[in-house]
Automatic annotation (TrEMBL):
Keyword NADP appears in the UniProt entry: no
Domain FMN hydroxy acid dehydrogenase: 11-390
Keyword annotations: Flavoprotein, FMN, Oxidoreductase
Identification of the protein by name: Alpha-hydroxy-acid oxidizing protein
InterPro entries linked to this entry: Aldolase_TIM (IPR013785), Alpha-hydoxy_acid_DH_FMN (IPR012133), FMN-dep_DH (IPR000262), FMN_HAD (IPR037396), FMN_hydac_DH_AS (IPR008259)
Chain positions recorded as glyoxylate binding sites: 143, 178, 285, 288
Sequence similarity: Belongs to the FMN-dependent alpha-hydroxy acid dehydrogenase family.
Superkingdom of the source species: Bacteria
Positions of the catalytic residues: 285 (proton acceptor)
Residue sites binding FMN per the record: 90-92, 119, 141, 169, 261, 283, 316-320, 339-340
CDD domains registered for this protein in UniProt: alpha_hydroxyacid_oxid_FMN (cd02809)
Cofactor(s), names only, from the UniProt record: FMN
GO molecular function: FMN binding; oxidoreductase activity, acting on CH-OH group of donors
Amino acid sequence: AQGVASTRLAARLQRAHAVADLRGLAARRLPKAVFDFIDGGAEDERTLRDNVEAFDAWMLMPRVGVDVGTRDLSCAILGARSSLPVMMAPTGLAGFFWPDGEVAGARAAARAGIPYCLSTNSVGSIEHVAKGAPDGERWFQLYFLRDRDWMQALLRRAAAARYRVLCLTVDLAVQGRRERDLRNAFTMPLRPRLSTAFDLARRPGWLAGVARSRLGFGNFEVAGPGFTSVAQHVASLFDPSANWDDIARIRESWRGPMALKGLLHPADAERAVALGIEAVIVSNHGGRQLDDVPAAIEALPDVAAAVAGRAEVILDGGVRRGTDVIKALALGATACSLGRPFLWGLAAGGTEGVARTIEIFRSELDNAMTLLGTPALKDIARDHVRARRGRW
Ligand code: FNR
């Protein structure tokens, strides 16, 4: 029976030709509250929408007469080779979307040769994920915790488990107001309610897998009473008082390369560079934190100008197509970091689903680079994009 199920799954994934198709599969498989947690954003979700729609403000400008007979989609991200200018953004609770979801995602990333970033808020622990996906380029994402000793312990554990890059996320002093989660009374695990019972009855695949998994925040000892909302978890453990001195201290205590994630202002990027941080991740947390802030692609050009090549610039948020990746590179990014597209793949089909997301991006990017006349990533220049006038 398992063989039949996995053949069916493989066939479904093969019929997904855009990440939007994988989103549809995820919506069918996940309970509504879980799907909303992934898909939703803060308050009116304006930034969430803008992250995607702001890519429309740019057009691609192809050049002809270029030999595009062979293409090279690979690049270096913080000194490590990546087969695509794309990495998996840190996303909490992946083990709540697919059984052992972090390992499933990390395996797909390793197999495809792109970086995987594990979240502080993962279900599987730092060690568990390193053991389950020992190959490949692993990053660890850290939040500021009230318990500084615990934070240092997480850093030591990540280094010992051979996560090469540290990604410090600085846009989550408190959790944004995500109203879908409030309305759904979203907790991990799901609190049994009559309204969810009907929903769950229609999600046998998810129920059989995830509902039987051991759920919790694997990097924390606080097992807790269960039924924790992410906002509660953040409010009790995260430290809103962290400032640039604290960021500097983390920089000093991590030997490997470090990225700072969640900035939009060029002056903050300057400050990060001054501390010796090797990459800035231009991000509004996928529209999940402060609403009404600029779309990531909107903030990118000024940040790239301020950084002026002294650090790598990673664009994070709203990337849904290979052409979006090209626009980001043309506007100064080294690479892109993607959250939801991988989570939709994960929820649709575990490792194979994430592999499908990567495959889709690979073929879209290859196709677009061929038609644009840029056979290698280094050929993509500012001149390959034009601001679209009139409608915006
Ligand atoms: C996130 N994000 C996130 N970021 C982070 O630094 N640590 C985390 O634990 C999480 N958790 C998380 C969970 C879920 C369900 C989502 C959707 C996002 C933000 C993530 O790293 C990234 O910034 C956004 O997802 C990028 O936007 P797109 O690609 O989803 O549009």
